């Protein structure tokens, strides 16, 4: 019997074998807090162990946001050690998505910012609604991405463009994300889930063992660079000791421009 989740909807279509996991915090634009990240980890573990699940669509509730970012109020209360542990835990759970031997498609509706962009990038493929927006705005808060964003963004769009997006915190529209290789397809909002499920259905008509081995083989190339994730987690933690992080998060919560000092 599937377990229910406080922050997710878990809907398996037994006929097709396609599981739809929906981040369901629409009042918070589906922002990631610790409980949501743990639910995502548990849901993917459950999916891997369920022989009825053959492929997974991951999306967000409503039309405004896939996942609009992390829960800044929660992050603001962390110290250096807790922040590094949170980063490592998020990396572990997002790695669970990436390493799934069942194909995972992110159906990105609306904003996919910060942790939401990182979550989408952990999926094997990304389908964007025409209203989707992507970005890693962490530097606006005196932070860096902590759930693999510095690594996967470079893998998907190349080093130079990844650095530009990370350092400027620029938001990318769906058509630009397609041009950069950040997403696989852009479709009208109303067609997003149907298109994503149709793509999965095509894949599920292939040999399951071969599909899983393709995913393993592609991921193996990037396993040579695992130290990058450790560097990211260390850097994420270090940010929490800075005055700029305190100023950035306080300014965000107070809805005012931040005045950074570099300390």
UniProtKB/TrEMBL annotation:
Gene3D superfamilies: 2-enoyl-CoA Hydratase, Chain A, domain 1, Lyase 2-enoyl-coa Hydratase, Chain A, domain 2
One protein family per Pfam: ECH_1
UniProt keyword list: Lyase
SUPFAM superfamilies named among the record's database cross-references: ClpP/crotonase
PANTHER family: ENOYL-COA HYDRATASE, MITOCHONDRIAL, ENOYL-COA HYDRATASE-RELATED
Record-stated family: Belongs to the enoyl-CoA hydratase/isomerase family.
Protein name, entry field: Enoyl-CoA hydratase/isomerase family protein
